[in-house]
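Researcher: Go.
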Amino acid sequence: MTHPSLPKRPMLGPLPVLRSPIGLAYAVTALLAFMIVADVLGFGAAANMRSVMGDVVSGSGDVDLGAVDRADWAVVATSGMYMLGMLGTATLFVIWFHRVRHNAEVFAPDVQRRTPGWAIGGWFIPFANLVIPHGIAKDVLRASQPDPYASEVRHQGLLNAWWGMWIVSNLFGRLTTDRYGEASDPQAIHDAAGWLMAGSVLDIVSAVLALLFVRRLTAAQNDKAMGRQQPLQQPAPQYPPAAGGPVPGA
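Model: Structure:
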């Protein structure tokens, strides 16, 4: 007489474990501070170029070609400094972003609408990168707060402010860089330098908001990992939504 075989137990992969984002957050914060310094220097270089070109356009006194060359060199040098800092900052930011998304998989996987891989890949899809990382960041914020199922998401206002300013500063920066590169006469260079100054201000605001976002989210995850966060109220037991179901408060 044969007996029916017992069903095989599914082979489960290793469960995700928390990984500290603090070291990466320090590095990203330092690079964002570097970007702010680069923007301040870029603002000064553009202001100097605008002043020099203003003297040329007005025809007041003899034109100092040495001053023109120095002003042009300053703009080129600060632009190179900015691009170098941007490359390093973007790289480390994406690594940090993937780290906090990984931790969200430990805190509350059922409120994550995209897999951790999207925390990297979402940045490289044209046009979609204006939406996907923001949605991931919101889900990570939700998972990192004391009660992931609360109707409100902590620091969402900061997230929205940074994301909106990041988009505006990037679009404005591309337009101003093209305008400055196409300027071919003193008046056009004078006007384009003014636009560069405005772009530097937007970049500074964006970098400050990004820095605050990195610090707030990192602190939230560290507090939750250390068990220092407590829900504002003890909710009734909640079960994860079924696969494909809606995410609370999404």
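Model: The CA atoms of residues 53 and 59 lie 10 Å apart.
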